[in-house]
Automatic annotation (TrEMBL):
Pfam families: HATPase_c. Keywords: ATP-binding, Kinase, Membrane, Nucleotide-binding, Transferase, Transmembrane, Transmembrane helix, Two-component regulatory system. It comes from the Bacteria. This is ATP-binding protein. It comes from Chryseobacterium cheonjiense. Gene3D superfamilies: Histidine kinase-like ATPase, C-terminal domain, Tetratricopeptide repeat domain. The chain crosses the membrane at residues 329-346. PANTHER family: NITRATE/NITRITE SENSOR PROTEIN NARX-RELATED, SENSOR HISTIDINE KINASE COMP. GO terms for biological process: phosphorelay signal transduction system. Residues 461-548 form the Histidine kinase/HSP90-like ATPase domain. InterPro entries: HATPase_C_sf, HATPase_dom, Sensor_HK_TwoCompSys, TPR-like_helical_dom_sf, TPR_rpt. The lineage of its organism: Bacteria, Pseudomonadati, Bacteroidota, Flavobacteriia, Flavobacteriales. One of its GO terms (molecular function) is ATP binding.
């Protein structure tokens, strides 16, 4: 438990400075973003750029994306349309979590911004694609109305009037008066452009009235432009009147783009004064182009300056990084040592427990084997002698039973199993096989000479003795044989024992039943092999062989 507490403490210590740094950077990024929202144009762009870099430092992809989209909108408002689309696309790459409400709203704004920029570049096909994409992320009524209005406007530019009307009708459902006026004006424009017999004036005047009542100067410009276009082929004086009203309002609102549109209309309609207005148009157009160029350059300069500042900051960070790396390295090494120590201790503990369990199981198995070899088979051998001998020596039988009893006590006290008998293995095997001979069973032995067992270890001799006893016991219980034979052979450094009987035999599927599984296990302990010949016409034949040493 102490090791775990120490480990947790070290983790907390090593991450303390990092967490503090993250909190500080988070505050910096948030403050830059708030500052940018309170400003306009170049200044706002500058702080959004700072916020973007700060969000990059703390790996806040949503913050990076939001900052870039706001920068793109400022570029669009200042005439940098290509740059605006490029910045919007860059921002979209960071807006991956589309399940987040803020991310979805930002993506909608980004695609709408690219649609507006594309419209100014007269790329209406892409504008329609961007507005359609923006609608996928629109959730608020205001956004839905705005994007449908913009999409309808682009469709009108491609003469797709029915599709445009459909979008304007959806936009008319808004409860916002100015948004309603815009949709109404656009719907009327689409209808009279599509059908020259359609009278849009009630709708156009209604939209204009709403805009005038709310002092909406950009909206009034739009209404005057639409009315001027409507009267262009019907009443040039009326068209000129609305074109001049558009020029006056756009001048008041300082909208240079709208002023240029108004001047173009006046030049075409006022033939007497067209030179005056043409000069004004040229001056304004040159000024606007210079302004747009300056804006583009200014945005590039801002990005460059912020990049330089960021590089200087990173250099300062790198200058102080070495000591922090050394400290963190030392802490990491300590943590690794602790982790390795904990895992080594646990693994060692598990290994010792497993070894102990295995030792207990081996002891139990050894005890069980001894009980089977000494007690069960010993008693069965005595029973066989009593059963097979018509006149048996009672005292000898009691001595043998007492011997089995003493052996069982030795097992319980884990005494050595060394036999106190002086008989050699050859004699013991012959006596064992002979003890199973009776009136109904004849036993035969061949090759069981004393020389056969030279250099065979006592352990191997004992295993062979138990194997022969198990074969005889199995024969007695299951085979119904009346003739049993054992033939012993030694070739070079290997002993072979061939057992055969004329009983009912045994199926290959049940060889490991009927008590023979222990026999197979003993042969494996001797690194030998056992072959059951079940294909003989009658009886069972077993070939056993094992190395002498």
């Amino acid at each position: 438990m102490k090791n775990y507490l120490l480990f947790i403490l070290l983790i907390l210590l090593s991450s303390c400075n990092k967490e503090t740094s993250n909190f500080q950077n988070d505050d910096i990024a948030s403050n830059y973003y708030k500052k940018a929202k309170s400003l306009t144009n170049d200044s706002a762009y500058y702080y959004y750029n700072l916020a973007k870099n700060a969000y990059l430092d703390i790996k806040d992809s949503s913050g990076v994306g939001r900052s870039l989209v706001n920068m793109a909108i400022i570029q669009q408002e200042n005439g940098d349309y290509y740059g605006s689309i490029e910045t919007s696309l860059e921002g979209n790459r960071y807006l991956k979590n589309v399940n987040d409400t803020i991310v979805r709203a930002t993506l909608g704004s980004s695609y709408n911004n690219m649609g507006i920029s594309s419209s100014y570049l007269y790329d209406f096909d892409n504008a329609i694609k961007f507005y359609t994409e923006a609608l996928k992320y629109a959730k608020t009524p205001a956004d839905i109305t705005l994007y449908h209005n913009n999409l309808g406007d682009a469709l009108v530019s491609l003469n797709e009037y029915k599709a445009a009307e459909h979008n304007f009708i959806i936009a008319l459902k808004t409860k916002d008066k100015l948004s309603y006026a815009r949709a109404l004006n656009n719907l009327a424009r689409a209808r009279f452009t599509d059908n020259s017999h359609y009278n849009p004036l009630p709708e156009l005047y209604k939209a204009l009235k709403i805009r005038e009542e709310n002092n909406n100067l950009p909206g009034q410009n739009s209404s005057y432009a639409t009315l001027a276009n409507y009267y262009l082929d019907k009443n040039k004086e009326k068209a000129l009147e609305y074109a001049k009203k558009m020029l006056a309002v756009s001048t008041q609102s300082e909208s240079e783009e709208d002023q240029l549109q108004a001047l173009q209309k006046i030049i075409n309609l006022d033939s007497k004064n067209y030179l005056k207005y043409f000069k004004q148009f040229q001056i304004l157009n040159d000024s606007l182009q210079i302004s747009k160029t300056k804006s583009k350059n200014q945005f590039a300069i801002v990005r460059f300056e912020v990049k330089q500042q960021n590089e200087r900051y990173q250099k300062l960070v790198e200058d102080n990084k070495f000591d922090r790396i050394k400290r963190n390295f030392a802490i990491s090494i300590l943590i690794i040592v602790l982790i390795v120590g904990i895992f080594w201790y646990r693994k060692r503990k598990i290994r010792l427990e497993q070894e102990k369990e295995l030792e207990i199981k081996n002891t139990q198995l050894k005890m069980s084997k001894k009980v089977h070899d000494v007690v069960a088979n010993g008693i069965y051998q005595v029973m066989t002698k009593i059963e097979n001998q018509e006149h048996f020596d009672k005292e000898k039988a009691l001595d043998e039973l007492e011997f089995v009893y003493e052996k069982s006590r030795d097992i319980s006290y884990e005494k050595s199993d060394d036999s106190t008998e002086e008989k050699n293995i050859s004699e013991k095997i012959s006596e064992l096989i002979g003890s199973f001979k009776n009136e109904s069973v004849n036993t035969y032995i061949a090759g069981n000479d004393k020389n056969l067992w030279e250099n065979v270890s006592e352990k191997a001799q004992d295993e062979v003795y138990q194997i022969i006893r198990e074969l005889l016991v199995n024969m007695r219980k299951h085979s119904r044989a009346n003739t049993v034979s054992f033939r012993f052979e030694r070739m070079e450094n290997r002993i072979s024992i061939i057992y055969s009987d004329n009983g009912i035999g045994i199926s290959g599927d049940i060889i490991y039943k009927n008590g023979l599984s222990s026999t197979v296990s003993r042969i494996e302990n001797l690194h030998g092999e056992i072959i059951f010949d079940t294909k003989t016409e009658k009886g069972l034949k077993i070939n056993i062989s094992f190395p002498v040493s």
